[in-house]
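Researcher: Here's a chain I'd like modeled. Treat it as a single chain, no partners, no ligands.
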Amino acid sequence: PFTVRSTAIDVDGQRIGVVAMDARLVGTAVEIARLDVDDQPGVLRATGMVDYLTGAYDVEITGQDLHWNNPVADAPVSAVTFGLSFTGAGTFDAPGGSGALTATPLGGSIGDFVGVADVRWQFSGGRVNATAFLPSLRAWAQATIDPQAPYAVRGVAAVNALDVQPFALAAGALTQAVTGTVGLSAAFDGRLDDPRSFQAVVNLQNVDLSVGGLPVALQHPTRITARVDDFGVDDLALEVGSSTFTASGRFHDTANR
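Model: Modeled as a single isolated chain. Structure tokens:
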């Protein structure tokens, strides 16, 4: 048997917490009786077995009130709190198990109205099948992720009557200047090892806005294609007051090539 105790761990200014582990080595397997990461008020706990030679594992992991400050440089949120659970057995090459994650963004320009994201996932056929719900945004998404490089992702998403006012305010629009809802669905794919590979096909289904008191409505569903350096619109027609605004075409940013 062996025991690990640490002082508070800090990585690039991010507090990870105090690590405590009781385990023993049986052949090439590490049997973990207790692994705690204490990041007050959050705590992460794990028990189980990991074979460092074969990659086999059988673990149970839970976490509550975990906190991550400034998750990404210039992110529109100041922090994210997490709760998670995972139970599963398999190998690193053929993973198995299922879990859940709740994430709540805090502060920043949009954190307080994005609300809780509830993510459920399960390993199946060597891939991760995940579903995410964002009740405050009336949005959901489903995706399949390959856990091996290049980490291919493919999925669909839908937003039903998204309230645009909080986003308009976060972008600096005047209070009450932009109100209303937008509805859409989308299909997306890409590789996590190359964010520039992502692309999405968006079906804009409903626009019901008021901009400075002027009504804005979508005449008919419109298809939008989006990539990192490419943006296309097929037959967009918006009724703006008593006028009609139409647009079709493609914009390609050659500066990113």
